[in-house]
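W.,

You were right to be curious about this one. When I first looked at the sequence I had no strong expectations either way, so I just let the prediction run and decided to look at it fresh. Below is the sequence, 345 residues in total, followed by the output.
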Amino acid sequence: MSRFFVDPDIKKAETLAADFYTDPANFEISKEKIFARSWQFLTGGHDIGEVTPMTLLPGVLDEPVVVVRTAGSTTCLSNVCTHRGKILVEEPCSADLIRCRYHGRRFALDGRMISMPEFEGVENFPNRSDDLTKLPFAEIGGFLFASVSPSCEFSDWVEGVEGLFDHDATTGLVLTGRREYEVNAHWALYCENYLEGFHIPYVHKGLNAVVDYGSYRTDMFRYSSVQTAFSGEELRADRAAARYLFLFPNLMFNFYPWGISVNIVRPVTHEKTVVEFLTYVRDENLLEKGAGADLHTVEMEDEAVVESVQKGIRSRFYRHGRYSATKEQGTHHFHRLIAEFMSKA
């Protein structure tokens, strides 16, 4: 049996061992086994122009890419010249081709190498390795995603949750804010806290006054989970106050009446994480109302708890925990996925 194992029966299961979080070697392994094999958020499609350089999951994958929008399609290409490795596109621009400013190699907007000075007489040139690699790429609800080497198709990754990105939820969104928080804790601890509402009555007094805790529910899918929170008013109208979508391993889409908050969890070390908050607003009049109000306060409360857990898991007396079978299904599901990915060859 793999050392990364979580029993599928939540009533019997123990959590991941503490050394998953405390061992720097496990952190390094997770970069390739978890993050390189998953889909990662790039941006909202309305945030970019025709040719836009980006970095796929900065600090973890650190993969330079360029997103190219043409009349017929959007493509994500490696942003590294296949000659000597120079970054090709440094700033967003409009262009009909991509040219390396080091030795003049040129590429079509679909990644094909189309010319190279002073290469007469070079054998077996050009070949496919001279073209820019096309990364697996997908778009849903105007949001763009890419992967280095995905373990599944994007359609499988979002199976069961596609409806959350429907026309009503994603039309008219405007990016109005971007903020980063530095958390002194392992990235997975931050995600675990997000994945259960169990702590709300104990940690979030303000949010608990808005959310009807008794009606809080979690639905699991293959690579994602959705938590649905109701307030008293929304519960009577059968309308959610908030839906919290988690896409494994580190993406959070929070659907509120005013719009969507996207949270990207970026590991830095085994004990430090940066969380980027992107605020996409559809109706500013609803911003300070309901479960989607005062998100900064909620974040500070979450960070305090998670950083305390980071200290606690280093204890000689802690190895595993157990799960609440009724309240921690999302965390159990998350741990099962981590164990699955960390155990793959």
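Here's what jumped out at me. The first helix runs from residue 19 to 22. And, maybe more interesting for your project: Residues 19-35+174-343 form a domain with the Naphthalene 1,2-dioxygenase Alpha Subunit; Chain A, domain 1 fold (CATH 3.90.380.10).

Coffee later to discuss?

I.
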